[in-house]
Amino acid sequence: MVTFLHTADWQIGMTRRWLQPEAQARFDSDRLDAIRRAGEIARAQGCAFVVVAGDVFESSQLRQGTVLRALEVMREIELPVYLLPGNHDPLDAISIYRQPTFSNACPSNVTVLDSTQSVAVAPGVEVIGAPWAGKLPGRDLVGDVVTSLPPADGTVRIVVGHGIVDILDPSGSNPAAIDTASLVAALDQGQIHYVALGDRHSRTDVGGHGTIWYSGAVEVTDPREEAPGDVLVVTVDSDGPPSVAHHHTGRWNFVTLRREVASAYDVDALVAELAAMTHKDTVVLKLALQGTLDLFDYTRLHEHLDSLRTIFGGMHDWERHTDLSVRASEAQWSALGLSGYVCDAADEIKVQLAQHASVDAPPTPEPDWFFDPHRGDDSDSARDALALLYRLSSAAQR
After folding, report:
1. What is the SS3 assignment for the chain?
2. Exposure on the CB side of residue 39, measured as CA atoms within 13 A
3. What is the largest CA-CA distance in the chain?
4. 287: closest CA among 254, 333, 334, 327?
5. 373 or 137: which carries more pLDDT confidence?
6. How far apart are CA 125 and CA 242, in angstroms?
7. pLDDT tens digits for 250-280?
């Protein structure tokens, strides 16, 4: 019997376009801290070793400091760590695992699974990896390893692979998809005892069999992930199914808010909701706002959002689900007492908005300029320009 930690998809060096510029550094640091927490969990749970099932690094073209910091974190784990090359960091001609930066600084507790040869990791326990030699293997690498194995003869075998399994492949045409049925057959026959997979960033029990798992990424990387930010502590022997327990390592979260904003009250409620959220610096917020606001409330909303945007890890409009319209009345502009060039600019922008006015806009007692977000970039730009002009003019009046 042996207990070990299964993790994957560290993707050290990953960048994300949805982050605020200064948040990228925090994201990088927190990903390394997630790996540190994985090591702490492994030691606390009595694990004998750690397997990382592919995509340890985001690519093979990383800065030296990024690689060296990652290796130092692996050293801190203290336990033996086995790294599998995946599709992001394959064993090709420019592999990061063959570069002097990696090889010269690689800690003694770190081993790259660079072949399909079994590696003895404990008495009576071996790990067999299925490393990627390139980004397009064209065949089931894990299946090739399993079909070539001799009988286990009492040895506990842990297979470490990377890639999509066939039952999760929506196209059904990927030649490299991992054949689940052959793995289940080998598990049922006792030829292998656990399959540690990477590539899917959500923790997943493949087929509900309990012996083929994706650990998921140690930190969330995409809003579509269902159970990210975990590692698995696995106890396995040659008799009976393995015991698998998940432990959370991630700190970042994606939050999607769909809200109707059609009044000053709605604006206040949304701003209060965002202000009350905790750990904003590790939250990536996706907003889907719908409704119609007058120009004053629209401007006020975006003043608040601009202020909060600097605090959150990221804040973005979910464009496909955003339908926020704006009306600007003559009364609002008259109250500002605009004149000269500023008044001329406002009139010009309002003409542009009128040209894009919605034919379905309900009648109002005074002329309105109506913005429909689905009518194109010109209307979008005109709305934002009008709101900016209104904001600046209002500020000048204060």
Report:
1. CEEEEEEECCCECCCCCCCCCCHHHHHHHHHHHHHHHHHHHHHHCCCCCEEECCCCECCCCCCHHHHHHHHHHHHHHCCCEEECCCCCCCCCCCCHHHCHHHHHHCCCCEEECCCCCCEEEECCEEEEECCCCCCCCCCCHHHHHHHCCCCCCCCEEEEEEECCEHHHCCCCCCCCCECHHHHHHHHHCCCCCEEEEECCCCCEEHHHCCCEEECCECCCCCCCCCCCCEEEEEEECCCCCCEEEEEECCCCEEEEEEEECCCHHHHHHHHHHHHHCCCHHHEEEEEEEEEEEEHHHHHHHHHHHHHHHCCCCEEEECHHHCEEEEEEEHHHHHHHCCCHHHHHHHHHHHHHHHHCCCCCCCCCCCCEEEECHHHCHHHHHHHHHHHHHHHHHHHHHC
2. 22
3. 91
4. 254
5. 137
6. 14
7. 999 999 999 999 999 999 999 999 999 999 9
Alpha-carbon distance of 134 to 61, in angstroms, equals 15
Model pLDDT for residues 6-56, shown as the tens digit of each residue: 999 999 999 887 787 788 888 999 999 999 999 999 999 999 999 999 999
Q: Measured between alpha carbons, how far is 147 from 229 in angstroms, rounded to an integer? A: 32
The pLDDT, as a whole number, for residue 216 is 96
The structure tokens listed for 310 are 């600097």
Among 4-18, 346-360, 379-393, top mean pLDDT goes to 4-18
- Token digits for 2? 């042996």
Q: Which pTM does this prediction carry?
A: 0.82
The pairing of strands 314-317 and 212-214 is: unpaired
Beta bridge partners of 196: 160, 213
